[in-house]
Design a protein that fits this description.
- The structure is a single chain.
- This protein has helices spanning 2-19, 26-48, 57-75, 83-102, 106-128, 135-163, 176-213, 223-239, 254-261, 263-280, 304-321, 341-344, 348-364, 373-406, and strands spanning 244-251, 286-291, 294-300, 324-325, 328-329, 334-340, 370-372.
- The N and C termini lie far apart (116 Å).
- It has 407 residues and is of the alpha+beta class.
- Helix content is 70%, strand content 9%.
- 34% of the residues are buried.
Amino acid sequence: MSMLLTFMLSMLLAITRNHHKEVRGPGYWAVGNLVVGLGMVLVLIQLDTPKLLFLPSLALIGAGLGLYLNGIQAFVGKTPDHRIPVALFILLVVIDVFFVVLQQNLRVAVSLGALVFAGIYFASARSTFSRDEGIIGNLFWIASSLFLLMALFMLGRAFAAVKADVAVFDNYAIWPVNAYTFMLGAVSQFFISSLFVLMLSYRLNQNLESIATIDGLTGILNRRGLEDSALKMQGICKRINLSMGVLLIDMDHFKKVNDKHGHLFGDDVLRQLTKIIAGILRSGDVLGRYGGEEFCVFLPNTTEKDAAGLAERIRIGVEKSLHTIHHKNIKGTVSIGVADSVRAGYDFKGLVAAADSALYTAKNSGRNRVVSFTSITRDSVSRESHVKESVSGDSAGKDNIAADNIT
C-alpha cells in the first residue's frame, strides 16, 4: 500500500513538474520514486523465489536514491551531479554480481550493500540539513532526520549481517532483518515523497506571491510589494523609535524618450536606471517601482538629512551613467523628493505624499535636483510669516494715518 501511494505521489510530482518547469527538482524526485518503487518490487520477487536470483533490485533502489539527491541539489539551486545515480547503480551491480553470483558470499554482499545505502542516506541527510527558518527549513529538517534514521538503520543492517550465523544466509528470504528493512524503507519512502510534495507546494506558493509583488519589467518590488515591505519596516522603526526616510525618484523627460525612441527602448532605459539606483543603495534599503517612471525607496534608521545625501549621490550617479543606451544618446537625469517620519509620520501614504510634494517642487524648479520636504514646508512657513508681517505693517500704517487725521 505504501508503495502504491509512493507511485501516486510520483505521478503528482511529474504532473506538477510538467506545468511548472521553472521549479527545479521535482522531475528528479518523480523519476527517483518510480525507480525506487520498481526496485522494491524486484526485491519482493527476488526474495519470493526458492533460490536467490540476480536481479538489479538494490542497484535500482540506489540509483533512485541518487536521483533524490540530484533533485535536492536542483531544488536548492545547485547543479545536479548526474554521475551520482549512475555510479551508485554500477557499484551495486558489481557488488551483487561479484559476491552473489561469482563468490556466492551473501554475507559480504549484504554488508557492503548496506554500507553503500548508509552512505547514500548520510549524503542525503547532509544535503537536506538546513538552519533556515520557516516552512521550507522545517520540511528540510524533517527530511534530513528521516534520511539520518535510514542511514543508522543501514549501518545496523550491515553490523547484523556481519554478526549473523552462517545458517541465516542459507535461508536468507526469511531473515527477520529483511522484513524490518523493507517495512521501514517503504514507510520512509512514502513520508519522504510526501515531504517533497509539500516542499514543491510551498515553493509554488512563494512563486505566486513573488509574481504578485515583483515588477515584471525591472525585477524590483511593485507598488503592492513596496507597501508590504514599508509596513514591515514601519513596525520595526516605530517599535524601537528609529527614523524612517523615503525617496521618490522620477526620471526627467521620460515621455520624450518614449516618443523619440519607442516604448521598448524606454523599457531598457528603466531597467538601466533601476540597476544604477540599486547599485548605490545600502543593503537594508527597499527599492520599488511606484508607477511608470517613478521609483520609491524606503530607508530604515535614516533621517531626512542623510536621505537627502543619498539622494544626491543617486542623482549624480544617474547623470553620469545614464546617457547611452544601445549606442543611442539620451539625457538621463532624475528629480528626487525626500521626506522622513520625523516630519511626515510613519504612515505609508503620509510619507509618500510628503516626498511627492518635494518631488513636485523639484520638477517645477528646473528638474535634475533633490528637494526635501522640510525645505518646502520651511519656505511655506517663511512666506506665511512674511505675509502676516506685511498685513500687520499695513494695518499699523493705516492706524497712524487715521491718528494724524484726528489730530
